[in-house]
Amino acid sequence: MKNYITFLIISIQQLLFQSAIADDFLWSERRRLLTIVDTLSFSEEYVVINTQENELSLRTVEKDLYVATCATGSGRKLEGEKKWYKWQFYTPPGKFKIERKSKDPLWIRPTWDFIENNEEIPIFAEDRRRFQRGLLGEYALYFAPGYMIHGTVFEINLGKSITHGCVRLGSEDLAFLFEEVDVGCAVYIY
Fold first, then answer.
1. Dist. CA 75–CA 91, nearest whole Å
2. The domain defined by 70-185 carries CATH number 3.30.465.60
3. pTM for the structure as a whole
4. What are 86-103's pLDDT values in tens digits?
5. Domain limits of the chain?
């Protein structure tokens, strides 16, 4: 709740200062939220992912601690031969939290990857073709079912909306974030 209120305050402040004429409602809302925030810890860290600018930042209420270029969901659609084989690859907007962290994460290839690469879809979940190491970088931070912040072997594509929904970071930025952020840290995506 603290992170959400803090995020709202920052958003409202940005709106107020970007607008030449501030509306009375926004000013009163800002004052109301600031009174709530007075009880919060200003050193609490949270992650913000801007999918329009492909930028990830680690912040506190007072300042940006770290800013990195990332890659986010393309929004592209994919359909397979079966009617239930339908996907849209976007990075989900909203408030999340880091659920778990992993070193040397294992990628379990989903069905859409086989369709996209025009390969036979394995019948069994334990089929060896589904498991690959090294494609997700050295670390992964899981924030929602099927979504994570991870590395990439194609760092040239950072700054683009090109992923299947996960957030990709360069290896140095990912190592920093992995060490700095704890499980439970809030993640805001817009």
1. 8
2. no
3. 0.76
4. 999 999 999 999 999 999
5. 1-40, 70-185
